[in-house]
Write a structure and sequence with these properties.
The chain is α/β, with parallel strands linked by helices. It contains 18 helices and 26 strands. The chain binds fructose -6-phosphate.
Length: about 625
């Protein structure tokens, strides 16, 4: 959501901050700002709008070696210049940027107002700057870290917080509770960010802060400590850096016009990465080292439950179908956002699978924490290494999709499905799945990247179909069994980036109500795999056609000529793995519909990548 950047070192800080903010813009934003120390004063520049507006507003003559910056996605207070971060205390000594939500902000603001402090913005964040300044009023000799630590004792809520203090001009202090913070360790320079995207062009050595941790960062050293530690660590580095896999180029568009299309086209390669070293031909199974359960423990699992939000939930639904089919273990998926609020019965013999691209989605993180509190067995399937959900789960499987920038999830989702297919294979092979079936699935998975390439090669035909139907105000997406979560995800992609109203329905449910909506202006996208349900799906198409509804069939079957108004062809693979393939043309369909309608595809309205708020 919001983005944080900080720098201390020998470089000119402002270009580093602006560049970092630019690379975080994809997370969603409505305003931006930065603060540096220049000629013994805090220089704050902020504006509603984009990073390029901030760049235009910054005074070129200011040169600084330390600073903090922020892109905001408004929660408290409308997006305008005043509410943009950084926020300062009254004396303009302390500047803070903050991600997350301070839940007792109203109370804190009222308390400050009572003590005569004038608050200039409507934000929850401004209170933090005043609280930190107040700690220095009590104890002039306090270190910045201690002042931050003490101020945070009054705060309830979530934060990734970065603080700059005029009186400590060579240091930055960060704290984390629920919103990511990563330190970038350079040669005599240090970076701070809410996402490695902002620092990977400068350094690959990073330190991820955990919740309830604080760090003090100087150009040549840093240290981390617990927020509640009564004695602060002095000097040295308490947490060792790790090396990030990502390259700066992963965050650049290259020859593409937007990240969504780039990421759709990266899928064959991303999928090869997810499968590499994980398929075992000898025993016709999968090797998922991160799961950390032996054959006996795997056999003891009586149910598998997938938990994720949005597209990650639909991917989980595809995973549940795979686990039931291949391993014959009861399985289902539930939105993590519902699970966490409904006081779930946690069963010790159920394997819970937390699904998240970002690894930061608050609802999913909370569901994991609830599970762990109740003694549930939970593994993570996340894309971002070092993210909160991955660390909270402790073990699991990384998706290896590479950085996903576009708000609409594509390559991470494909790798989620491939990962669930491998999990289903592993669970099946410790039960009743034969070697022959195991070999068939292993071979089917290996063939997937080539099949994806074939789909991408047919992009223009899919684009033509999308453009033909782009005038529709509403669309149905219809599937059954394996095709049902595919239909749901197809509808989700279309609505989020094109704003066309799309609704998914099980084919079998149409006659129980929604058929009433079918007419010439309601096209239906129907998932028609060449499997044992083919004739059922053909009769669904006929029912729709009989009521004048246009049909777009997405299929790997040889359908009767003229049955559908348009056909999107998918290569034929192993039937159980069909969802993985059928999903990709729907991404392209949504993409080209949105392109035809002139949408800002990477940044759909009202949405942000990684939802770290309630
Ligand atoms: C849809 C989309 C969202 C995310 C959801 C979960 O294209 O991107 O629905 O899938 O917000 O995000 P993660 O996977 O980061 O937990």
């Amino acid at each position: 959501m919001c983005g944080i950047v900080g720098y201390v070192g020998r470089r000119d800080a402002i270009p580093v901050l602006l560049e970092g903010l630019r690379s975080l813009e994809y997370r969603g934003y409505d305003s931006a700002g930065l603060a540096v120390i220049y000629r013994n004063r805090l220089q704050v520049t902020k504006t509603a709008g984009r990073v390029q507006d901030l760049r235009a507003k910054v005074n070129d003559r200011i040169k600084a070696n330390i600073g903090i910056g922020h892109t905001r996605w408004a929660t408290h207070g409308e997006p305008n210049d005043i509410n943009a971060h950084p926020h300062t205390d009254t004396a303009a000594r302390i500047a803070v940027v903050h991600n997350g939500i301070i839940e007792n902000a109203e109370q804190l603001r009222a308390g400050l107002a009572k003590r005569g402090v004038t608050l200039v913005s409507d934000t929850d964040t401004e209170a933090l700057a005043h609280l930190i300044a107040a700690e220095f009023a009590h104890d002039e000799q306090a270190s910045l870290e201690d002042a931050v630590r003490r101020a945070l004792r009054h705060v309830e809520g979530t934060y990734g917080l970065l603080v700059l203090d005029l009186q400590h001009p060579g240091e930055l202090v960060v704290a984390r509770n629920g919103s990511p913070i990563v330190l970038g360790i350079g040669q005599s320079e240090m970076f701070v960010a809410s996402d490695v995207a902002a620092l990977v062009r400068y350094t690959k050595q990073v330190v991820y802060l955990d919740d309830a941790e604080v760090a003090t960062v100087h150009a040549t050293d840093y240290h981390t400590a617990g927020l509640d530690d009564s004695v602060r660590h002095t000097g040295g580095s308490s947490k060792e850096p790790t090396t990030v896999e990502a390259e700066a180029g992963d965050y650049e568009l290259g020859a593409y016009e937007d990240f969504m299309r780039k990421e759709i086209h990266e899928q064959p390669e991303a999928l090869r990465r997810a499968l590499r070293g994980r398929l075992d031909d000898r025993f016709a199974t999968a090797k998922l080292g991160g799961i950390d359960l032996d054959a006996r423990q795997l056999r003891g699992i009586r149910q598998v439950k997938f938990l994720g939000c949005g597209s990650a939930y639909y991917a989980g639904q595809m995973g549940a179908v795979l686990v039931e089919e291949l391993a014959r273990i009861p399985s289902d998926a539930e939105p993590a956002s519902e699970f966490r609020y409904r006081n779930p019965v946690v069963d010790p013999d159920t394997l819970y699978v937390a699904v998240s691209q970002s690894g930061e989605t608050l609802d999913t993180l909370m569901a994991v924490q609830e599970l762990r509190r109740k003694g549930g067995q939970v593994i993570g399937t996340v894309n971002v290494v070092g993210s909160a959900i991955g660390r909270e789960c402790g073990h699991g499987v990384f998706l290896h999709a590479g950085p996903e920038i576009a708000v609409a999830s594509t390559k991470a989702l494909t790798n989620m499905e491939a990962t669930f297919a491998m999990l289903a294979l592993l669970l099946g092979r410790v039960r009743d799945m034969s070697t022959a079936t195991g070999q068939r699935i292993v071979a089917g998975l290996r063939a997937m990247p080539d099949h994806l390439e074939a789909i991408l090669a047919a992009e223009e035909q899919i684009a033509e179909t999308a453009r033909r139907f782009a005038g529709a105000d509403h669309m149905f997406f219809i599937g059954r069994v394996r095709g049902w979560p595919v239909a749901r995800e197809g509808a989700q992609k279309l609505k989020e980036i094109s704003y066309v109203h799309a609704e998914a329905y099980q084919a079998s449910e149409l006659k129980h109500g929604p058929l009433a909506l079918i007419n010439q202006s309601m096209p239906s996208v129907i998932i028609v795999p060449a499997d044992e349900l083919l004739t059922k799906n053909i009769s669904t198409i006929e029912q729709i056609k009989a009521r004048g509804g246009p049909v777009i069939a997405v299929t790997n079957a040889d359908l009767p000529a003229d049955l559908a108004d348009a056909v999107i062809t998918v290569p034929r693979g192993e039937p159980e793995l069909d969802p993985l393939l059928f999903n990709v043309p729907l991404q392209l369909f949504a993409y080209h519909t949105a392109a035809k309608l002139g949408r800002d595809i990477d940044k759909p309205r009202n949405l942000a990548k990684s939802v770290t708020v309630e």
